[in-house]
Amino acid sequence: MAHGDMTLKWDGSCLKLIDQRKLPFREEYVDCAQAGGVAAAIRDMVVRGAPAIGVSAAYGIVLAAKAYSGDSKDEFMSIIRQASSQLAASRPTAVNLFWALERMEKVVSENRDEDIEKIKGLLEAEAKNIEAQDIEINKKIGENGSKVLRGLAGKSLRLLTHCNAGGLATAGYGTALGVIQSLHEKGAVKEVLVDETRPYLQGARLTAWELYRLGIQAFVIADNMAAHFMSKGSVDAVIVGADRIAKNGDTANKIGTLGLSILAGYFKIPFFVAAPLSTIDISIAGGSDIPIEERPQEELRKVMGKAIIPDYIRVRNPSFDVTPNGNITGIITEAGVAYPPYTESIIKFREELK
Ligand code: MRU
């Protein structure tokens, strides 16, 4: 997705989300005309990826505000609070969700003396800002990341990525895929190995589709093939996104990222995380405090709707894992690339967000 015009579309009264459960075979949109519909779309993976979840939740608040037709400020405030709690309960790990909701709540609290119609307009403007800023931020991440990665091998790069951190996971352009796109624009990408990303197959279904549309040479591999390609010297760098980064740089991302980081360390391959500063949660000291979502068993039991594990067999399905800061070569943000010790570099960058 080159321009980010597909993940979500706001038409003034409805949030249209491309149904990521149906990609790449069907391009269908789900219309969300109520905050509850947005919360369900996030929970059910119509929209996913940390920044895209945050932007969608912001529009969820706009929908809640617009649906109120009374004239009681207290009632209006309480409806916004309810919508915010409903949206906050949709998924627990990606901090961008809570960050975006806080931004929306701040608009309400700072303008509590204005009339209701004015607050509705301000909320809509803020959601549009969050969306537009996300694309701008991703382009900066792409630029910052491509500068660093270009210097790595002195030749066209063979990259490996996990899950989907592309236009579909953001308002547009993507974080890890934004870096890959920026490198590609400079002729610096030879090929990308795309982990299929069991159990939800974001890599096979979404990342490979995005790279194909961008004209970037990509090969889908099963997750358990990464070590093989690394051992053959076929990977110059790994680049992934993030759902929540603790103050010390520990990073929660799609399940399987931790294993990849360990492999990268073993084979001495640079391992980069690309994420906006809004993904950094400085209220959390280390990765062990990041809440890890456990998703429905169905996702593991079935592959594209077909059962492969019978009901009497028990399964576990944690959706994220935490990569310790020591396994991360650098964290690419819109403010620059943070290097260890992250406690210092992250705080410095995060202060710029205030
Ligand atoms: O469960 P998902 O598909 O929402 O998980 C997405 C990821 O783990 C992404 O890597 C992360 O959100 C970064 S998206 C720019």
Give the topology, please:
Layout: E1 8-10, E2 15-18, E3 29-32, H1 35-43, H2 50-67, H3 73-88, H4 95-110, H5 116-153, E4 157-161, H6 176-185, E5 189-195, H7 202-214, E6 218-221, H8 226-231, E7 237-240, E8 244-246, E9 251-254, H9 257-266, E10 271-274, E11 280-281, H10 298-301, E12 302-303, E13 306-307, E14 320-323, E15 330-333, E16 336-338, H11 342-351
Parallel strand pairs: 4-5, 4-7, 5-6, 7-10, 8-11, 10-15
Antiparallel strand pairs: 1-2, 2-3, 8-9, 9-14, 12-13, 15-16
The chain binds 5-S-methyl-1-O-phosphono-5-thio-D-ribulose (MRU).
Structural class: alpha/beta
Share of residues in helices: 40-55%
Low-confidence stretches: none
Elements, N to C (H/E) = EEEHHHHHEHEHEHEEEHEEHEEEEEH
Bound molecules: 5-S-methyl-1-O-phosphono-5-thio-D-ribulose
The shape is globular
β-strand amount: 15-25%
* Mean pLDDT across all amino acids: 96
Question: Strand tally, please?
Answer: 16
Query: Largest sheet, if any?
Result: 7 strands, mixed
Distance separating the two termini = 30 Å
Across the major sheet, the strand order is 6-5-4-7-10-15-16
Number of helices: 11
Radius of gyration: 20 Å
Textual characterization of the structure:
- The chain is of the alpha/beta class and 354 residues long.
- The protein is 42% helix and 17% strand.
- It is built from 11 helices and 16 strands.
- The chain has helices at residues 35-43, 50-67, 73-88, 95-110, 116-153, 176-185, 202-214, 226-231, 257-266, 298-301, 342-351; strands at 8-10, 15-18, 29-32, 157-161, 189-195, 218-221, 237-240, 244-246, 251-254, 271-274, 280-281, 302-303, 306-307, 320-323, 330-333, 336-338.
- The strands form 4 sheets. A 7-stranded mixed beta sheet has the order 6-5-4-7-10-15-16, with helices on both faces. A 4-stranded mixed beta sheet has the order 11-8-9-14, with helices on one face.
- The longest helix is centred in the middle third of the chain and has 38 residues, at 116-153.
- It is globular.
- Bound molecules: 5-S-methyl-1-O-phosphono-5-thio-D-ribulose.
- Residues 48-51, 94, 163, 165, 169-170, 175, 202, 241-243, 253-254, 319 line the site of 5-S-methyl-1-O-phosphono-5-thio-D-ribulose.
